[in-house]
Write a structure and sequence with these properties.
Radius of gyration: 15 Å
Structural class: mainly alpha
Helix content: 55-70%
CATH topology: Globin-like
Oligomer: single chain
CATH class: Mainly Alpha
Number of domains: 1
CATH superfamily: Globins
Mean pLDDT: 86
Length: 130
């Protein structure tokens, strides 16, 4: 790949790599001791994985294929996420990233995971303490 023309982390990783990471993450979610239950409301895993892969593609700087309004805060809070589950979610995500990516790319993507996780926690605290 000609790095001079690469403008985003998404392009460096490529859609296939992002889709692989997302797929592995959600495969692990389904059997995770604490995360499986809040995600049990997902009934169409292939569609969910495709939607979330597109979400990460855009978060990491890729151009969207289609227009879709994402609501990660609302979805996760509706599923009962709290600080403990968010810690488990971030930890699992970090493990999956480290299994698939070199340390620099893993760390770069994980910084976005932390931002989203922290935002979820902030919104949860705001909603439950106002």
């Amino acid at each position: 790949m000609d790095l001079k023309n690469v403008t985003s982390i998404a392009e460096l990783l490529g859609r296939e790599q992002i889709e692989l990471v997302v797929s592995d993450f959600y495969n692990r979610i389904q059997i995770h001791p604490t995360l499986a239950k809040p995600f049990s409301n997902v009934h169409d895993w292939p569609t969910h994985k495709a939607k979330i892969a597109e979400f990460w593609w855009v978060v990491l700087g890729g151009k969207p294929k289609f227009s879709y309004k994402y609501d990660p805060v609302g979805k996760h809070l509706a599923a009962g996420f709290n600080a403990e589950l968010l810690t488990d979610w971030k930890s699992l995500f970090k493990n999956v990233l480290e299994a698939h990516l070199d340390p620099e790319m893993s760390s770069t993507w994980y910084s976005r995971v932390e931002i989203i996780g922290d935002n979820l926690l902030t919104q949860d605290q705001r909603l439950h303490h106002d």
